[in-house]
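Hi support team,

I submitted a single chain yesterday and got back a structure, but I'm not sure I'm reading the token output correctly. Could someone confirm the output below corresponds to the sequence I sent? I've pasted both exactly as they appear in my results page.

Thanks,
R.
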Amino acid sequence: MFSRQQFRVGQTFMLALVVLLGLWTTAAAQNNAASSGGDSSNAAKPVLPSSDNGKDEAKATPLPASDTPASRVRGVPLPDGYVVGIGDVLDVNVWKESELSKAVGVRPDGMITLPLVGEIRAVGLTPDQLRDQITAALDKVLSDPVVTVAVVAVNSLSYNVMGNVGKPGYYPLTHPITILDAIALCGGFRDFAKQNKIYVLRADANGKQEKIFFNYKQVIRGQKMAQNILLQPNDTLVVP
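Hi R., thanks for writing in. Yes, this is the structure output for that exact sequence:
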């Protein structure tokens, strides 16, 4: 009697164990199916910071405001003592007065026109001298104006090369250039160029043009080197 009862208990225990094992296997299969491409709505999602109060949002840090007068356009490199010439373009900047700040070209009469200032002569002045004159004019209508003047295009410092050369045309004269330098920069001579009859056309203070002759063959042999002069603004180098 006892042995038969013990056998039934053992049989019941084994049956319960098989049922539990079956349930566990089924649950494990479902979990594997879900993790391998089932419903992706239950996948982990990145947690975004709350923007309800704005404290967690990333914000751009503004650049610090400048307390110094800044020019809107940088000037070009200039030789020492440079004076403004006809055709130059100037950037006149009045600090904290954007309506008065502008780029102006120097007219053929040597004048420029500015708001509140009107016409003012620029030719023959250095940028610093012109700045002082503009400041003095604005001082009558503004409180402590701070002005900067920058040359942003040098059109008055140039020379012309024409004739039998590789690349005739206008060239900038922002540093010292001799006749030999100019010949090299324009690509040298073309065929049949008269190298011993080169000349420079230059206007004097009264506007009268003079010819300054240059014999290339002599100079390259080291003879009469004084012919190899420095070119000046508005010179015209002619190679017949």
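A quick pointer for reading it: The beta strands are 89-94, 102-105, 111-114, 118-121, 147-153, 158-163, 169-172, 198-203, 209-214, 236-239. Let us know if anything else looks off.

Best,
Support desk
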